[in-house]
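Session log. Operator J.P. requested a structure for one protein chain; no other inputs attached. Running the standard single-chain path with token output.
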Amino acid sequence: MFTYSPIRSLLIICSAMLLSCKHFDEPENSNLVPQAPNMTIEDLRRQAGDRRLSITEPIIIGGYVTTDDTASNFYRTLCIEDATAGVEIMAGTYDLHNIYPEGSYLTISLAGCAVGTHYGILQIGTEAAAYSNYPTDYFASRVLLDKHIKCYDLHQTVAPKPISFRDLQPSLCGRLVNMQSLHITRLSPSNENGEWSGYNIFADNEGNTIAVYTSTFASYASQQIPTQQVSITGILQYGKVDGVDMYIIKMRDEKDCFACN
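Structure written below.
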């Protein structure tokens, strides 16, 4: 005969809650063999050009996550790259490092998505309003995000591509890159204390310059910029800095800058 037990009932409820939480927090189909991409990111970038595109074809791309939003220098977005190029996903949610950890393999089903270029980077999101200054908008919900993005139990740390100033070109925007032997040459106008916050300008020994961007909300924004020569890693961008078009590196955290030997 069944006997009612408050303790047993409580255990059943707690177990159900834990299973529910696990299902919500983990990306759908995380253990399945990934569906093969039918287009490279480079080809998608070439197809989009400088236009806003609404994708209706069953296009699938794939790549490994190259960013981490733990330090809050990336805000509700993440980047992936394959062997050809990089792309930014307008995820629209927080703590993405818990959902799509750096090095995870993702596939994105683009049918129903929009693509466009912002700060030199091809972005994937939803269609932006006609009046918007942005080419795409954020995915509006986790349900919509899971509909288009699958995360798999495949992991590979993407090594930053070593580049020099002569290597800089628009096709590299969105990729994780590394530049050596840079030194701070000009602080952001809003930055009087030598801190990371804002667009700070670095130069090589020949006087070539590149901006390094740090959000005011980044956890390391108030830390001091090293004054010696440094190596800097981050996602490459291109846009206006103080009215001048130039390449920009967006670091993931303060560990992306370290002193050169």
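Operator note: Residues 1-24 have pLDDT under 50 and may be disordered.
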